[in-house]
Design brief:
Shape: elongated
Helix content: 10-25%
Radius of gyration: 18 Å
Order of helices and strands: EHHE
Structural class: alpha+beta
Length: 93
């Protein structure tokens, strides 16, 4: 039995239905947010091991047709912090 949180959302697998499909073709979209590789992630990328950063979710991402990731940090060539509260986040491009 499908566990539903409302009429459009399948709580078992996260599928969301906006309308009834008109085609048997389906698209899987993986969306991630607040990605911040930090110093460790930058070091791994520089060493040519970028796949390790996404290793914990690699099979989920590989199964998707489209992958969207929102970075929590800018990717500057040089860090130029602005006056603010909290840490200045950045990651190597």
């Amino acid at each position: 039995m499908m566990n539903k949180t409302d009429d459009n959302m399948n709580a078992n697998n996260g599928a969301f239905r906006f309308r009834e499909p008109v085609s048997p073709v389906r698209m899987k979209i993986a969306v991630g947010g607040d990605f911040c590789p930090g110093d460790y992630g930058a070091e791994v990328v520089r060493e040519g091991r970028a796949a390790e950063v996404f290793a914990p979710v690699a099979s989920f991402l590989e199964d998707a047709d489209w992958r969207l990731v929102q970075f929590e940090t800018p990717l500057p060539d040089a860090v130029a912090p602005i006056p603010k509260t909290g840490p200045t986040l950045s990651s190597a491009p």
